[in-house]
Amino acid sequence: MRFPQFALLLVAILVAPAAAQQPANPVTSHYRAYRAALERGDLATADTEATAALETAQLDPHSTGTVAALAMNVALVRLSEGHRAQALSPAQLAASLAGNTSSHVDPLAVDIAVKRAALQVGDQSEAQLLAALNAAHEHGGLDEYVYDGAADLGAWAVTQNHLPVALEAWRLAVATSSGSTDADILSKAHALIEVGITMFYIDVAQAPPSLSHQSQPLPLASGSDAGGYHPNVGILTPLAEAARITRPLAMRASSDGRMTDAQLQFSRASAFYSAELSLLSLMNVDPGEGTETSFSRYLMLPAHAGQTACFPRVIPQPMPRFPPHERNQSQVGAVMTRLVIDDSGRVTNAQVVATVGGDAFARSVNAVVSRWRVERGSSSVGGCEMGMVLFAPVTFRFAG
């Protein structure tokens, strides 16, 4: 969750009286509880406390200047919870007050919140939200709101099968994730992955019926069966870029040994990239020299600081079984595995962490991956150690 910047301004407004040793303000107390709940990811409590802060402020004539911002808090947290209809009333309240100089909210940001809350099937609400997002993006300084709104619209439009709208929204999300913080990088990677996936959906929708009977899992065809269909090799570029920017973050191990958000994003990008590249290969389509597709789909995390890790060679025996239904339906898939390897090369823990093509592919790999082993690769340097966490892709494809 990306915390909106207006909340930081409101902290100064509300906390200042307490810092001056004035009597406790109930609005301040509820607001602090709201912020604390946001920080720990407890959206339900954040909603309760934001609502209480707003209702208390509406009863206090000395707090009228904060009502718009407090209403915006309520609207945004409800949107984050997925409660679109319940977010509309506080968003509209904020909009009605946003023109006042004392409101502490930007009218363009409030307009995005109102139009996010008003999204519904069968009207012009998608176009209206997209217009609001573009206006805020052109204005500048509202990237947090534009990103969240664009991501919301992108996900919504995919569920409605409005793919051109989804693609425009996700590209706008990419454009507003230009920061260098870890959160900004992960937000951009997420948007890039969604751009690639949406491009794939559009590509399949334009394919002949023999190829487009399903968009997920991936349909498979040989070059001779494609009927003149030419897949979009540009799908690979945003996926490769997502993997490239997340790799440095994914190389950082978590303190508790669990998978990090960066490792999950890298895994998603790598799995989908692997499946798409395999599909292009099986259709005899060359990605082309001008396509930015080259990156390592493997990720190695040494077991301890200062370790010189060996270059691993995975021995995937027994091999996973191609799921019969997926084979009969001419589908191709890919998964990303996370392997914990001891000094002898034995896999001590294994799991599938990202899947493209359906759960059947994940189940097939999970059934055998714990019995795999890893050897020192020929390019390993002397004195290297095998202990590591290895992320490695597995691609399902027909042999010919």
Residue runs with pLDDT of under 50 for 5 or more positions: 1-20, 209-226
Class by alpha and beta content: alpha+beta
Order of helices and strands: HHHHHHHHHHEHHEEHEEHEE
CATH topology of the domain at 1-118: Serine Threonine Protein Phosphatase 5, Tetratricopeptide repeat
Q: In angstroms, what separates the terminal alpha carbons?
A: 45 Å
- For the report, how would you describe the main beta sheet? 5 strands, antiparallel
Looking at the structure, what is the overall shape?
Answer: globular
Average pLDDT reading: 83
Number of helices: 14
CATH architecture of the domain at 1-118: Alpha Horseshoe
Helix % is 40-55%
CATH class of the domain at 1-118: Mainly Alpha
Strand fraction = 5-15%
* Estimated radius of gyration: 25 Å
- How many β-strand runs? 7
What does this protein look like?
Among the domains are: 1-118, Serine Threonine Protein Phosphatase 5, Tetratricopeptide repeat (Alpha Horseshoe); 299-396, TolA/TonB C-terminal domain, CATH 3.30.2420.10. It has 14 helices and seven strands. It has helices spanning 6-19, 26-39, 43-59, 67-81, 84-97, 107-117, 125-139, 143-159, 163-175, 182-205, 236-250, 261-282, 324-328, 359-366; strands spanning 218-219, 299-302, 312-315, 331-341, 347-356, 373-376, 388-396. Strand 4 and strand 5 form a beta hairpin. The radius of gyration is 25 Å and the shape is globular.
